[in-house]
Amino acid sequence: MSLQSKAAVVTGSTSGIGLAYARALAAEGANVMINGFGDAAEIETIRAGLESEFKIKALYSPADMTKPAEIAAMVDQTAQAFGSVDILIANAGVQFVSPIETFPVEKWDQIIAINLSSAFHAMRAAVPHMKAKGWGRIISTASAHSLVASPFKSAYVAAKHGIAGLTKTVALEVATHGITVNCISPGYVWTPLVEKQIPDTMKARDMTREQVINEVLLEAQPTKAFVTVEQVAALAIYLCSDAASQITGANLSIDGGWTAA
To answer: pTM (2 decimals)?
Structure first.
């Protein structure tokens, strides 16, 4: 499969799953707009690296996912630079853990804005470009928490359930325009963010590294193995293919069996 000359926007793509999406799309020939916060020099290294490694065009937008106007401007900038917006991957997300009665209101507002509302604003801006071409792929990163809950994650779970509902709704609206809309629901994914949490957890719980991984992080995943960012990205690439043209409005789990229980 080739996505040669397709144009993709990937939010939250300067690290982790988002960067894996961007790399996978670039490997298939798509031009990519990456987005996210981080060190400016490191981001430029990532952007330039995508261009040199995959021989595609890559741009970077610092658009703030809590600001609708900046999100819309990023999508329009992509269309102006690359001639279209064919693929949108709404991936930006943050997390905060707290009991409901002490959950900071500003954290609720931030998580809903970044994890849910930003996907709405990006879709709203991208759909007209896709309708104009009669082809499009919209993919959101949901979570196992779009299907099941965990305590102390009220905002995150609410936002991810919202992504699942938004996915279904927009899929129905654009079903006759050659556009598919799906979400991917990973379980625990091995990222630098997860890896950095292990030493602190070892100390706090007086556990070995293996105990933390298997008894804390992977307790919910029957396979007792992390999902990799490359596996998540590979699923997204499949959803962009012609073979997946009749998959729309779907929530695809990639969680080591977590939500099968």
So the answer is: 0.96
Torsion of CA 41, 44, 49, 52, to 10 degrees: -130
Q: Per-residue confidence at 1, pLDDT binned at 50, 70, 90?
A: low
> What tens digit of pLDDT does each residue of 159-209 get?
999 999 999 999 999 999 999 999 999 999 998 778 888 988 899 899 999
Region of residue 209 (left: phi > 0; alpha: psi -120 to 50; beta: else): alpha
109 contacts 96 by C-beta, under 8 angstroms: no
Active site residue 156: yes
What's the CATH code, domain 7-189+228-255?
A: 3.40.50.720
Catalytic residue among 60, 156, 188, 238: 156
| Burial of 210 (C-beta count, 10 Å sphere; 0-12/13-18/19+) | exposed
In the chain, where the domains are located: 7-189+228-255
Strand partners, 106: none
